[in-house]
Amino acid sequence: MRTKTTKAQNDRGEALGTRERVVRAASRLMQRQGYDGTGIKQIAQEADATLGSVYHFFPGGKQELAVAAVRHGDEEFAGILREVLHAEPDPARALVACCRLLAEGLRTSDWADGCPVTATALGTAGRAPDIQRAAAEAFARWRSLVAEALRAAGIAETDAAELAHTVISTLEGAELAAQVSRSEEPLRIAGQHLARLADSYRPR
Amino acid sequence: MRTKTTKAQNDRGEALGTRERVVRAASRLMQRQGYDGTGIKQIAQEADATLGSVYHFFPGGKQELAVAAVRHGDEEFAGILREVLHAEPDPARALVACCRLLAEGLRTSDWADGCPVTATALGTAGRAPDIQRAAAEAFARWRSLVAEALRAAGIAETDAAELAHTVISTLEGAELAAQVSRSEEPLRIAGQHLARLADSYRPR
DNA sequence: GTCTATACCCCGATAGAC
DNA sequence: GTCTATCGGGGTATAGAC
User: What digits encode the pLDDT tens for the residues A69-123?
Assistant: First the structure.
């Protein structure tokens, strides 16, 4: 047989390299428990790697690992956004679908899996510039994906850019509120209001 | 003289009791550093108290202290909301003012002081039911304050309740985005969009 | 690249004098 | 109510064999 372990595999069925497994484990654990709440030993264990391997790939230690974890979360959510925005040409409907998707992810994980970068970013604010920069880049990327879709739907350049800000802010806040309240309500309602807001800028 | 120390005083100039000083220090530190990032010894030091005093008032340890800290943050933000909503009868203008106030607090603290409950709640999600409940109650209280103001401005009962959800979600998310990006933009824009959304539900 | 052992530090919590 | 001393455990990070 070509693979000799039970380690995680990617979506093509290939075995994942050690570095990739470590980054994924770090991203998931920090998403759920925050930066300070997640230990390097726990990450190594979850990734089926040894402490030595972790420091081999991330000589900068926990901070360097957190930067990679945030970038991984960045791409993860960017993928979801791209998928939802391309499947539905009407951005208002796409935003409703996005909220539904986030709510589903929250519910099926028993309200554990919120935004993949928020907890890490918030727990290191003001004391780890590298992590903070990676988080800021993630937010900016998500905004530009949303802005592009809004422009494609005929919304004016400036309006689209500003709307994208509020779309990301509201998605973040509603996911947070849903997680804290253990309820899908905040996300369901946010989807409706974002759709209404976006429609109010559509040309007629 | 009536007070013999340099300890913190309340707004009437009276010296604060030990318990109150500890709660305030815990609230501020956890707001900035999260639950796991804040040590009990650090809290005691910041509050001019000893470790023994902290455990005297909070025999339940760090978790019990965190619950008190979240409740303190709850009242802190509720006070801001009440002030802004009562100073300006038009809720749309009040929301803009609220965003301006949050942005100012963030900027003047060098982007350290975000929402007083978010970091604590997020860092303990799913493993400290008491803290989570206190955070959920805070969100619910803030929502009901906003809903009341919206109803007073003539917005229908159901619309007001749903709008209040999105107002709190968006305020939370925009404050988070502003903190991560170290920019007032997300809050400035959120204020405009929330005002537009609220106006769209006003009777004419 | 992978693994084990360990140095060193700080954590939450407790005990008991005052 | 306040204070100091300390326990037991877990944290990050490193050293060095393989």
Answer: 999 999 999 999 999 999 999 999 999 999 999 999 999 999 999 999 999 999 9
**pLDDT at site B204:** 78
Q: Which of B95, B100, B31 is nearest to B69 (CA)?
A: B31
CA distance B66 to A137: 31
Q: How many CB atoms lie within 10 A of CB B90?
A: 15
Q: How many CB atoms lie within 10 A of CB B159?
A: 16
Q: Which two structure tokens, joined as six digits, stand for A177? A: 């509120």
- B161: how many CB neighbours lie within 10 A of its CB? 17
In this structure, the number of other CB atoms found within 10 A of the CB of residue B77 comes to 20
Residue in B126, B163, B173 closest to A169 by CB = B173
Mutate to test the interface with A, among B109, B141, B165 (most CBs of A within 10 A): B165
Segment B145-165 mean pLDDT:
98
* Mean predicted confidence (pLDDT) in B60-82: 98
Residue with tokens 């990617």: A10
Cα–Cα distances (Å) from B124 to B30, B131, B139, in that order, read 11, 7, 16
| Single-letter residue type at A74 | D
Whether residue A5 has pLDDT greater than 80: no
DSSP SS3 for A137: helix
> Is A166:A63 a contact under the CB 8 Å cutoff?
no
Could you list the protein residues whose CB lies below 7 A from any atom in strand D?
A 38-42, 51-52, 55, 59, 61-63; B 18, 49-53, 55-57
Query: What is the per-residue pLDDT across B3-16, written as a single tens digit (0 to 9) for each?
Result: 444 566 666 566 89
Residues of A in contact with B192 (CB under 8 A): 162
Q: How confident is the model at residue A15 (pLDDT cuts 50, 70, 90)?
A: confident
* C-alpha–C-alpha distance, residues B65 and B55, integer Å: 9
- Residues with Cβ within 8 Å of A4's Cβ and at least 6 positions away in sequence, in order, are none
Query: Which CATH code for domain A66-199?
Result: 1.10.357.10
Amino acid letter, A84: V
